[in-house]
Amino acid sequence: xxxxxxxxxxEVVLLAVAILDDSAYGVPITQEIEQRxxxxxxxxxxxxxxxxxxxxxxxxxxxxGATAERGGRRKRYFSLTAAGRKALWEVRQTRIQLWExxxxxxxxxxxx
Amino acid sequence: MNTSKGTPQPPRWAQRLLAMWEDSHxxxxxxxxxxxxxxxxxETSGERKARYRYWLTVLKLLRPxxxxxxxxxxxxxxxxxxxxxxxxxxxxxxFRSKGYSALTIFSLALGMAVSILxxxxxxxxxxxxxxxxxxxxxxxxxxxxxxxxxxxxTATSPTPMGxxxxxxxxxxxxxxxxxxxxxxxxxxxxxxxxxxxxxYADSTIFDVFTLPILSGNLQKALTAPQSVVITESTALKYFxxxxxxxxxxxxxxxxIRRVTAVIKDIPARSHFRADLLLPLHxxxxxxxxxxxNHMFTxxxxxxxxxxxxxxxxxxxxxLQTYIDPALRQFFNTTLAGTRKAGNGFIYTLLPLxxxxxxxxxQGELSPTGSIQYVYLFTGIAGxxxxxxxxxxxxxxxxxxxxxxxxxGVRKVLGSTRASLAGQFLSESLLSAILALFAGLLLxxxxxxxxxxxxxRALTFSxxxxxxFLPALLSGTLLVxxxxxxxxxxxxxxxxxxxxVKGKADTGSQQxxxxxxxxxxxxxxxxxxxxxxxxINQQLYYIQTKKLGFDKEQVVVVKTDQASPNQLQVFxxxxxRYPDVKSGTVTGFLPFANPDRIDTWYPEGTTDDTHGVPLQxxxxxxxxxxxxxxxxxxxxxxxxxRASDAKAVIINESAAKQLGYFNPVGxxxxxxxxxxxxxxxxxxxxxxxxxxxxxxEIGPVGLxxxxxxxxxxxxxxxxxxxxxxxxALATLEKTWKKTAPGLPFEYSFLDEMFExxxxxxxxxxxxxxxxxxxxxxxxCLGLLGLSAFTAEQRTKEMGIRKVLGASVPQLVxxxxxDFLRLVLLANLMTWPLAWWAGKQWLEHYAFRTxxxxxxxxxxxxxxxxxxxxxxxxxxIKTALSNPVKSLRSE
Lengths: 112, 889
Prior knowledge:
By secondary structure, chain A is mainly alpha-helical. Chain A contains 5 helices and 2 strands.
């Protein structure tokens, strides 16, 4: 089976979608990432990453929720697929394993 | 859209840019999101900043090449790079063996050139009369009429037919009659000019046919008294301007007619030719308007959606209502009566567009073409193309031995059979396309020659124009595929393991196939050679046959429009010159198409079964001598004897049909019991040929008559000198003196006779040309094959030579196989050629026999040509130094 490799930004976007749960579409995802990570994220990069993740099968999307402030246009809501959840989980596992493998004194030196 | 002042909108141009470039699948939500962002930015950082950020984000979103379609699998035939590779390899293969490639491409080009020329000819033949807008609804009435069991098939129909049908059949929208007016002398101010293409026409001609008008009023053009309609070029000829309306033309020095309309020239691809149109209603025939007269051709314009067969079915009512009374009145019989005797009247409709190719009747307005020739030439084109395709197949399979390794390596490297076949097909397609260009060049070069041979006016622009081009391209594709198909599948079938070693079964099967194809190529060539020889022989037979009259040194002076008195004076004055041996006044020369056939009966019967359809030729007493006819029984007319006015001289054929062994003194009559209806036979002349040798000699009766009508059309002189030019000058001087204002026009009897067979001569030339091309292509193939065989056997020949074989032995060894094939082709073709030749000769009542010499010449010719072709290569190999061929390895 092919493993889904996630880039760092992809991981962040996936997590943002997971946090937002039912209301994950372009605008709140961007704002969520900006607020939580404190870095200035362009909508354009979020948009392309969402597209890419959907092509990879990590996200699925559906249209809905047109409002007046959007000029009557619908939103594209994203949600995690099983593969997306699995990919996130694997990244997390790898991180944890890596952290656990780090010797104690090195951790101390890192100022923890 | 976004013009409401209340809520500020994001920059219009940025929005537009976004709408243009963003992927249509995601456009909606992106626009929505951007709008939300814009509102947010405006509220937090102000309008200006918001606009700026909106622009920036939009620009960043635009990544026209960012999203690529993932490429699905594509078959190698649509794969551009694969195709490019095929093409590269094909070019390399072609260039690697330039000689062979040139051979195959040149022979394909020759084949294509012949096919293109013939296609041009055929399209031309099929394009007749299609320029009339209503062509699909126009039909001509054909008549099959029989009196005395002699069926006459004519293109003409009864004079009142058209008008009657128009009033009685609702299906008929319009009718028009056309009739030839014969040759006329026309002048405006200057000299008289002779016009041969003068037609009588009803004024309805403009409703039926499409004849674009330049000036004048079509409605009244042919109804006004003394009117004439002329074509553009006639107007230019007589008046020097197209604007000839209301100018006058003088016909035959007597009749003045006013130009009432000028029309565009009638296209050459038309079954009638006309430079001048005269009102038909002014003719005597139209005034008499009898059902019995079949003088004019009648065309019907049917209403849209009418079934012509339904109209044909209703002709019976016409027969009952009109023909039957006419028969009772003029022929003393009834419709039922004539039918009972096995005679009758059948009227049918022929579509206008079929006239040129499918009709060959008496009274056609101009000579028609023939669908047989269209089929024949199409067949020949196909066969020649086939010979060229075989060359390709032969050389490709023969040279496959050289490519075995290449194929093996390709297969080992994972090439599928289909892609290998694709590669070889692209090679043949490339050859075909190159051949097409070469062929087009050949067509361009050969077109003037072909036009001369086929008597056409085809232009090269027809090749590149309109519907021809797609046909040409698809034809090329077809040729390329059919030539490449067998080699492609054969070559791609090699087993890789054997192929890499350079071994492939280029075994007996391939040799057999090549041999078969060579035999086939030569069979076709031999067939064409035999055909050419046969036509040649028949033409020779015709030209040397004793015709029953002497056609040498006879000059015919055309004298239409001269008065009887002028004719007599001219004849007598001319005879004063010693070089003029004799002369006769008559238009009835031995080439006349049957002008007037009447039924004559032996004395005492009026029974149809005894009636003889006799051509009546009106002549004077000098006719027999001048033409050199031979009197078998009885005597010639005696000048000045009054009783000879009611005498007739018949030919043998007439005597036989009348049933007389001793016809002299017998009386014949034509059923009309008046004085002019009986004639006494005073002599019998030996049968002489007066029609083409295609038909039997029919019954002819010569009798004296007043010098009017057809009998005044010519004065014929027999010359007794080798100085023809002086004699002609003398005749001209005499003519000018006797008939001032009339042109001096003459022709020679032997030339007029030749003209009867112009069609055969044309076919002979075309056949010769085609046979040459076929042989040439077959030889090109043979040359390639022999070169290849010689190359394959270089080593063998070297060893043989070292061991003491002589050069002739080696040449024989190399040529023997090919000669065997050519001989086989000869044997196989002879029966077919003999049968086909016999079929063709059946068209001639008088024909040469097929002699064995024809086959001998074809055999020797083909063998010699093949030998020359093969020996070129085999001698070269046989002469080469064995040291060279054995040196390597």
